[in-house]
């Protein structure tokens, strides 16, 4: 006992115990959070989660020593030394790492906690030099370590804390021994129960045993015994699992009930659950004072029982199984804990709760989780445990100055953290830039795409740890992506995914820098002569890269490796406009890598000038304009020219922007307009053969302002205020502001509109301000808001009325309906509107916080729900998507098989082919190669992946929930289109028809459109081996198809390149002029 009485709080044993308890607490709390939210209805995943938490807790005493020196220290807690407490009348505070008062200099004023300072004491200033001291782990620069050096204090030895620590150790050891004794007693009970048991007659219950084996998917069941000692059905045995039934149970229940009991207990035995039970008992013994460990054991036991119940539900319906449990409960009372095995009836889980779980339609009845899910759960808890273990507990500091009579009492030293950076702007995007090895990249530039409006954008250069913060103004409703690049542009990275970045984006953005790819673009005129000085740009929505042709008409571009380029645009004032389409189908769904070299032809331009003026007719300089959509007759689809930075033209001092670049076949197009101080009321539009001089009128921005306050009248800072005009914008906000420290906000909006102004926040809400008519040069102030908690609107979006089929990722629009608009503003709608957007989580759940008003909740055209919000704290509105009564869904998973195993194919294009012709899609799968489709038996799935390198076919299943499509290397069909003189025909439309059945009338067919390049060549990749088909080229006259076409059939036997004979078309001539060619298998149809 003397030894135990000398244990002090700084002892390594105490520090290890504190570190272990901290880890256990953190891991269990995180596990409880995940289990109670994302995994509430997924018993198998919850069981894995709690099992990982249990294993981590048992290993936690060894974690901290193992990671010491490997993982940085998150914080250092200096334990107090109660045996050397001081009673002080005056203390002097000294901050280590900061300026120290020299001898004779006045010291800092004392810092006393109220509990340490005598009542009414007036601390006196001291000129005594502070006592020197050191503390383990507290010497890093910036650490805030406070030392109290008492002056004239008398040390008082206090060994009570040592005795308390020793007493606690004795108490813990006694509890440990008792718990270990119970484990030994349980082992004895198992032995006695086994000795008293006899084998169940297998011949008598042959059919029941066969049914249980089939339900468990095994050839043999563990030995099944009966014993009078058993108080209920149990599974026991570590090395040799057995099932023990109470004597007489098999004879007194129906075959179905007996089968359910055997399946449940057999699942325990086959899963080796008795080993988990032993680990639980060891954890309960070691951590018996910790209530969260007992909570963990309870949750793990419940999840284990639910998983075994799921085994039963695979062979029996929930109602029958619930009745079986009720019958067994009436016969055998549930027991709180079995020392002799794992029982079917567990007293800590009420029968009502268990039956409610069985009957829950949202219950996920899987019995095993995927390897990926297990790894993810283990990684999450391991990260939590390592973070908790990186908080060190250091022993108390001791005075080291020789002759110092007054010891130093050290409290807590926490690792220094950088102060929060002040924020500017209205919203921010944060993230990290790394290289391909995952290492952070410092000094990289992060910016919006080149064509985006950069007004009010600041920041974006990465710090030493690769992190960045990009600040944006309220004029930006969204960005289609971010671009990160090193100085010089040798390495470029793009934000992943297609979804735009908005002020609602919460997750940090991760951008990976990769070396760029070269692209050579040659620009020539209609006679083939090179054009110098032409602007060339490779364009996708979230990224653009540009260059200019030299004297030889060639431009060299550097293209990001991950770019999904849609177009390459070439243009020059006076010479023309052309674009390369980096896709083949008329409805493109994927964009293959660009060829290393391509050509563009600028074949003349018509004059077009647009003048910008204000409301008084005065010219406006500095206004930027760009054509929005441009369609050339020889192209598959229009190009969104406004996403090209080189398409934007700025008005000169006379307010004129010159667009002398569009060929005659372009016809009319609309224009986008940007201005720093003005807004366009109606966008200009050019017309084919229309005027060549246009005028666009702009209005000055008008200011709206007000103050947002908390309920007690205090200013409310950092609150978003949104405004939306007469017609809702697809991005959900016309302008956005954020309140300052004084609660004020200001918005600059387009005049001649009616607005709704609303507060948007996750915690606060207010009634929206409606009916705000804005006129030019008439600013409006006093649009104030008083915040309240508002109403939490939440619910679930499901496919039909089945809550077990959540519509994950569904895009929801919450439209607030304002009053009737004045007559002059009813342009397509009658009421004011403000739209809030969100997306459903993986469980289909959504949430908004709103003030009182009339609302319509929509998911596209699939569902709509109108309701009123008053002052309720919460409103729940579930939204079932409209489906036909017989419509069901199934999941497609696209994989590529290899000797190393199946590899999912991300972004594969999946098309459903209708028997007899027709198709739906193609639709791209997600990044995991998965897509959910409507089940239509009789359809055939045609899948292309990796840019057409892979392809595969499979029929739509009749009933299966998931179908796996194995794709394999595919063939490429290629050929040429030439005229009757053998001259290659550029930019000709070629139709590729794939026929996957022998009977053409009932076959599944797929048709795709390709375009020939400058050498008259075309190609289509993604043809499965064994496919028959044909390629055809239409005849044209004066740039228009005549209806006649040349057809060449083909057959693919191996996944190689198939070169078809030339498709010969007339250079020009009457609509139905026949074409005579000598190639075998070539025909002309009309």
Please state the overall shape, judged from the principal axes of the Cα atoms. Answer: globular
Q: Report the biggest beta sheet as strand number plus sense, adding barrel if it closes.
A: 8 strands, mixed
Helix content: 10-25%
| Alpha-carbon distance between the two ends | 106 Å
* Low-confidence runs: 1-7, 83-158, 336-340, 397-422, 727-733, 1069-1086
Provide the domain count: 7
CATH class assignment of the largest domain: Mainly Beta
Q: How many beta-strand elements?
A: 71
> Rg to the nearest angstrom?
37 Å
Mean pLDDT: 78
CATH superfamily of the largest domain: Carboxypeptidase-like, regulatory domain
Tell me briefly what this model is.
The protein is α+β, with helices and mostly antiparallel strands and 1086 residues long.
